[in-house]
Amino acid sequence: MKSKTSSFLLKVPSAAWVILLMMIVCTVFSDKYLTLGNIVNIIQQNAVLLIVALGATLVLLSEGIDLSLGSVLTLSGVNCVIVMLYLSKLGASNGLAMILGVLAGLLTGALMGALTGGLIAIGKLPPFIASLGTMGIGAALALVFTDSSAIYIDNPVYVFFGQKLDRFIHLSLLQYFSMPTFIAIVIFAIVWVILYHTSFGRYIIAIGGNEAGARLSGINTVYWKWMIYVLAGVLAAIGGIVLAARLQAADSSVGVGMEFDAIAAAILGGTSFVKGKGGIAGTILGVLVIGITRNGLNVVGIPSLWRPAITGSIIILAIVFEVVYSQWRERSK
Amino acid sequence: MDGSILISARNISKSFPGVRALDKVNLELRVGETHILLGENGAGKSTLIKILSGAYAPDEGEVYIDGQKVTDFNPGVAQRMGVSTIYQEFNLIPYMDVAQNIFIGRFPKKHGLIDHKKMHADAAEILNSLNMKVDTRSLIVDLGVAQQQMVEVAKALSIKSKMLIMDEPTSSLSERETEQLFATIHKLNSQGIGIIYISHRLQELQEVGDRVTVLRDGQFIACKAVNEVTVDDLVSMMVGHSVDEMFRRDYQPRGAEFLRVENLNGGKRLQNISINLHSGEIVGLSGLVGSGRTELARAIFGVDKYESGKIWLFGKEISDHSASIMVEKGVSLIPEDRKNQGLALILPVAENIVVASLGHLFPKFFVSKNKENEIAMKYVTELRIATPSTTRLTQYLSGGSQQKVVLAKWLCTKAKIFIFDEPTRGIDVGAKAEIHGFMNELVKEGAAVLMISSELPEIIGMSDRVYVMRSGKIVTELPHTEATQERIIEFAMGADEIKKNRKQAEMAKESSK
User: Fold this and answer.
1) Cβ contact (<8 Å) for A217 and B301?
2) What is the largest CA-CA distance in chain A?
3) Whether the Cβ atoms of residue B260 and residue B312 lie closer than 8 Å to each other
4) Cα–Cα distances in Å, from A331 out to A10, A16, B170?
5) What local confidence, expressed as pLDDT, does residue A69 receive?
6) Touching check for B347 and chain A: CB below 8 Å?
7) What residues in A contact B347, CB-CB < 8 Å?
């Protein structure tokens, strides 16, 4: 018979252990680390990554991969801002310009997702190849539209999406919350409902778990697979729109490498490349591992040129740990 | 024994979980003979050749090669001792050229580098000796099946094999290619090479075989010289007379026509197929593995495309054809490979049961877990699925229970037509009888069942009518009163044609007198 503690420990995801370890190490090295301000900072900075990582998780659950999410994020932010500025120039109100700009951004994400997903589901291209191609297309379009620089935006209604809540409502508690965090929580809830409480969610997992079987069950696997990428594209677009609001600018290369962080976060959170194993709850932890590592290196004062190498190493170690840990967990069931 | 025995297997037994695949089987191969291994699906032929080629170790019994007892047998050792096996799936590397494939792993070398000149010259020499005209530099992907097979033979000759095991070598060859293969076999025999030849086709026996060994249900039945036995003898040797299983069928008059297929064509496996299926009947689809049964089921179900033909469902011709449409109309397919095609093993029982009916169970897109579990529970009780709860992962269920989950999935869609592909393969006796019981209930309630099975007792015991397929064609339709194991085997293996040809030849002889 197993003791209660050990069966509780078994349920703790591996990413949680990594987070704990990182936090202890960073606290030892810097007294500025474990402060409320810093923790709030971490959460706020990684809200966008969480939104993108949710999309990446859904794609991985269906046994696919989408490398284009980073450039879809960039392009959507760019299109959103461009449309907004254009409408303002034509004399539209800030509110109307914001709504149409955001719609343009979302549409960009949906179209890019439809392209990637169409190539994969209908064109039967391997997901890696198809999304590598659309990644290039998205990145290039963003550079062309912005003339490879940043476009600044000061539409106050839009910029609100990137700010702390206490700027508008003077409640001291709200200083700990920002719009990106709030939006990420709402999006997480929506994706949760989609994945676990709708037939679409079932189809995602069924396709990942056994595509041939899903097809023989009469599920229109081509259509639903396509839709998975459209959804991931829309999520990346939301990330891009929120990020541009926070930065008050649409930057032509802001999303570079974001797809890898998103995929790494999903895998760190226990989602596997095969058989539809995993889920989005773990993705939050995966995002935190990445966020805490980045922030920790910054606070502790590691020279910035070295940081990507160290982040990369920690991600690799964390994934190795996740694999070993989950095998150990399987065995001790 | 004298030196003319190349390989001899004595008292070989081999068991797999739940099956005794081979039970004290004997086989010997003489220098220069072609020895046919004959038996129904599942008689143990494949297991036996896997043992002879070192892929499996026997549980009991010994293998002697050149009079020497073999220990520590594995495919590498087998090859070194001169045994080469040509499986139906060739072991060739598609994007390498012919010469490299022949000499792979044993490239002739000069100064440590591959000696291409010698390799191609040697390869050409071997291919010439087989009368095969092909450039040794062509890639395997560019060759036809028959040529690829010859490359396999050349590979075996290049390692100086003395014994060749060929698993259904003619299954994908045309008639002319088959003749060429037989010529090659005779030539190899004349050089002293022994060949173990596995085939389902009785016609081929007389042409290539010297002796024939018959297996049935893992038992050695007989070893005879080919010219001493008749086709009838062989058929009766292959068929077991014991039908000890009990089948419960309540035969009833059939109802309306649910499914009609006319002149369906699709590749070699589907040639001019016409069948029909009525409410209230179980129709058996018999035939050897590879005769096109599964392909027919998949084509009807809309998963595989076909070239031409018409299908009527419930009296209406269907134009648009895909699996999702067929499911919507009430057709279901319970595939043979339930683990890979019927179920998502890592998902709970409940999710597997509702997955095909999410659309009409939850038309508003949102899935209610409570309702889902309630529905699943209903089927778990009804079908007596052995699972502690509906949230249990399907992979932890027994084979029989897994099959019931697949059945539940289709009952949940309110399907009217059930296509079962090997419904009871790998299922224990108790669960088997239960599945048969459910099939009987289904048709009593007005459903229609098309059942593909390799088990003749199951076909005979359960069907109202039986279609027999051979090489992509429906060769006969038998009512259950006329369906006997012998008749089905005769049609499935082509014995009817041999007899017909012989009769015609006799008549021709008489009329010429």
Assistant:
1) no
2) 73
3) yes
4) 11, 20, 47
5) 97
6) yes
7) 205-206, 209, 276
Helix, coil or strand: residue B487: helix
DSSP 8-state class, residue B41:
T
Per CB-CB distance under 8 Å, the chain B contacts of A121 are none
C-alpha distances (whole Å) from B76 to each of A181, B27, B53, B82, B287 are 62, 21, 9, 10, 35
Taking the C-alpha atoms of residue B360 and residue B328, their distance in angstroms, rounded to an integer, is 9
Q: Is the distance from CB of B380 to CB of B332 less than 8 angstroms?
A: no
Query: Does residue B303 belong to the interface with chain A, where contact is any CB pair within 8 Å?
Result: yes
Helical axes A221-247 vs A179-197, angle rounded to 10° = 170
Spatial distance between the Cα atoms of B417 and A288, rounded to a whole number of angstroms: 51
What is the dihedral angle through the alpha carbons of B3, B7, B10, B16, rounded to the nearest 10 degrees?
170
Q: What is the DSSP letter of B340?
A: I
Contact B285, B295 (CB under 8 A): no
Interface of A with B (CB under 8 A): 193, 196-203, 205-206, 209-210, 212-220, 275-277
Residue B344 is nearest to which of A197, A199, A209, comparing CB atoms?
A: A209
* CA gap B212, B197 in Å, rounded: 9
B345 interfacial to chain A (CB closer than 8 Å): yes
Q: What are phi and psi of A195, to 5 degrees?
A: -70, -40
Q: Cβ separation of A219 and B362 shorter than 8 Å?
A: no
Q: B123: closest CA among B87, B95, B159, B79?
A: B159
* pLDDT < 70: residue spans in chain B: 1-3, 18, 240-245, 513
* Residue A67: C-alpha distances to residues A133, A191, A236 (Å): 9, 20, 11
Closest CA to A211 of A225, A226, A197, A199: A225
| Residue B157 host element (H or E) | helix B145-158
Question: Long-range contacts: A171-179, Cβ < 8 Å, 24+?
Answer: A176/A36, A176/A40, A178/A44, A178/A47, A179/A242, A179/A245
pLDDT tops 50 at residue A1: no
Contact: B355, A202; criterion CB under 8 Å:
yes
Cβ pair A213:B344 closer than 8 A: yes
Highest mean pLDDT among A130-139, A176-185, A248-257, B340-349: A130-139
Please indicate whether, in this complex, the C-beta atoms of A217 and B327 are within 8 angstroms of each other. Answer: yes
A213–B362 C-beta distance less than 8 A: no
Cα distances (Å, whole numbers) of residue B32 to A232, B5, B152, B190, B229:
65, 10, 19, 6, 21
Residue with tokens 């912005």: A146
Question: Which sign does the torsion angle of CA A74, A78, A84, A87 carry?
Answer: negative
The ipTM of this complex is 0.72
Give me the mean pLDDT over the A50-54 stretch.
Answer: 97
| Euclidean distance between CA atoms A155 and A74, whole angstroms | 19
pLDDT in tens, A199-226: 898 899 889 888 888 888 888 999 999 9
**Contact criterion met (CB below 8 Å) for A193 and A174:** no
CB B239 within 8 A of CB B485: yes
Whether the CB-CB separation of B25 and B9 falls below 8 Å is answered with: yes
Residue A146 to residue A88: CA distance in whole angstroms: 17
**Phi then psi for B115, rounded to 5 degrees?**
-90, 90
pLDDT at B245 (0 to 100): 58
pLDDT tens for each residue of A143-197: 999 988 899 998 888 888 888 776 666 666 667 778 899 999 999 999 999 998 8
Whether the Cβ atoms of residue B218 and residue B44 lie closer than 8 Å to each other: yes
Q: How many residues does chain A have?
A: 333
H/E element holding B121? helix B116-129
